[in-house]
Amino acid sequence: MAPTLSPAPSHGVxxxxxxxxxxxxxxRDAEAFRALxxxxxxxxxxxxxPGTVAPAQLAAVALRxxxxxxxxxxxxGGLVAVHGTQRLRVERAAAVxxxxxxxxxxxxxRPLGAGTATExxxxxxxxxxxxxxxxxxxxxxxxxxxxxxxxxxTRPAATPLVPQASPPxxxxxxxxxAASVVPPVVPPxxxxxxxxxAASVVPPxxxxxxxxxxxxxxxELVRRYAELSGDHNxxxxxxxxxxxxxxxxxxxHGMLTFALVxxxxxxxxxxxxxxxxxxxxxxxxTVPAEGATLTVRDLPAAGGALAVTAVDGAGLPVAGGxxxxxxxxxxxxxxxx
Length: 337
What we know:
It is built from six helices and ten strands, in the order βααβββββαααββββα.
């Protein structure tokens, strides 16, 4: 029987490809990121750890490394890139201004319809090699929006963090469609109200016992997130580009949804180290001119975990997953002994 050949990756980067880098989140960047999430919420955040980088900002830094790695291959002409799943494991809090070493690796490239689903793992460590966080992203390149949820992120056995020497990355402004390892420095987000959606839709009642947070997501908020994260994909900034990609309107970054879910959890249970958050994106959050509403809910689940869901103003699912405490790498190593 003849072997079955998988199509070439749509981005031209094969499994096993590695890229290393260095990062430093300044106090101004950290403040601006937290302020961005606060602007969208009507409830002040009480669970943030002063002097540390928000976990979702670590995930944003890791995703830029992921995207930079995929950009080393030929540009996927005519294909739309969307976020399928995102998992973030935080080993310990990262201090503001602490140098971090990253290692991004393509774990797998699988055919998915007319495109591909690519899983990339990014580890963040201190200069001494101690683990800080691990981010695993599943990115889907396709001719248009992917119907239904993306396949789940695999959970391979943990491997030690071994940072590789890499020259510091120059901090510079990021033009549209360009990539940067380090999010650009931008002025802190003004702590002012962003006009709420003109026509708010009340979502269905939450399940009994659920904790809920409501966020107002406007195009201005999406634009500010693009500046902070360095992700200037046109589908997040231009309604015309989004419609050309097959979407109804401009869509929010999947990592903006991830950041707001993490903001909700910080308010509910705090930003404890040794936690893991995994989300599967069901559909993009469409952001019309009048804005959109995102409601995040959590419920207790088995093993001390929390089942998390995010829905739009009509109550349609945008993302779902779980947040749970996790053993540190040293503890997991002892468990295997």
